[in-house]
Amino acid sequence: MSDTADVVLIGGGLAGLAAALDLAGRGHRVLVVERKQYPFHRVCGEYVSHEVGPYLRRLGADPAPLEPASLTKFRLSSPAGCVLDSPLDLGGFGVSRYRLDDYLYRLALARGVEFVLPATVADVTFDAPLGRHTLTLADGRQLTARLVLGAYGKRSALDRQLGRPFFAQRSPYLGVKHHLRLPGFARDVIELHNFRDGYAGISAIEEDKLCFCYLTTRDNLKRSGGTIAALEAGVLAQNPHLADILQHAERLYAQPEVINEISFAPKQPVEQHLLLLGDAAGLITPLCGNGMAMALHGAALAAPLADQFLRGELPRPALEAMYAQTWHRTFGARLRVGRAVQRLFGGPMLSELVVGGLRYWPAAVRALMRQTHGKPF
């Protein structure tokens, strides 16, 4: 591994791996710093809209070898079990992050991307006269790069260093993910089930597995006695559809994946000369189910601009301005819609009214889906 690169990616999730593949394919020396060893699990709904298909094929990373589930239908339930069904116009596929991230990682290795892992970036500085970044790792090693892309996820100590406003605000949300087996569960449907102060999604991934992932609040957990098992038995199971899932499903690993402090507050896609991708740039509410596609789309926006910069065709101020403008134009409206939609499902009574009303207004359901999803890119 060289300690100097054209581009360093901080974080090797979907956004980081896709951007690494893209930039390496354009002839640049690319280095990815990731804090874990592949493969590993992440808290994620593991549904990807088909809008990403053309980009993955351009990268030579078609997910077909992973045998993902094909998802074409949507089902939504209120806390009391009232159900709304709708087609997914564009559709999508289901595949675990454990398998998809490892697949992209191995493709990147084969194409010359260098990796530093497991490793954590403790500090990033920028030398304006030299036009270079210096990254200091937690073990003291240093890396230098002409450009740094931050794809480190929802929340990192780097956000504190960068002085990002959302980091100083406590967030009430936590996310939990299980992998399950549940005989008879339809493999072409995404189900989203509301419960008091939260909602859970379940859909098929590869093989005969299901991803079961939910968002709720720390207060909900505390009121349930502080354990995930008690929360699921006492709160999630009040929704009859969730009660059935929890009663009959086989859990495929002993403990769920859990993440705290999930913030949906607005962020900026450029901070102190770092271009930010994926959840580091902005997090869409899981209710809208499109975070994985947005991460890949962010890489598709950043890579061609980064390529122009690295070739000397675009000065840094123009690079940063153009990326920020393109990012806001592409994602700003869907993030606002996502935050607005999430507020409709905060309380049981409002959730019942919304789901009950939308059952008789299918055009509105499909319009909301179009507002939170993009077109193939």
UniProtKB/TrEMBL annotation:
Domain of life where this protein originates? Bacteria
- Provide this UniProt record's keywords sorted from A to Z: Flavoprotein, Oxidoreductase
The family database entries (InterPro entries) matched by this protein are listed as:
FAD-dep_OxRdtase_2_FAD-bd, FAD/NAD-bd_sf, Geranylgeranyl_reductase
Occurrences of domain FAD-dependent oxidoreductase 2 FAD-binding (ranges) = 6-38
In Gene Ontology terms, what is one molecular function of this protein? oxidoreductase activity
Which Pfam family, giving just one, matches this sequence?
FAD_binding_2
Checking PANTHER family in the record gives: GERANYLGERANYL DIPHOSPHATE REDUCTASE, POSSIBLE OXIDOREDUCTASE
What protein name applies here?
Answer: FAD-dependent oxidoreductase
In its UniProt entry, the species of origin is given as Hymenobacter setariae
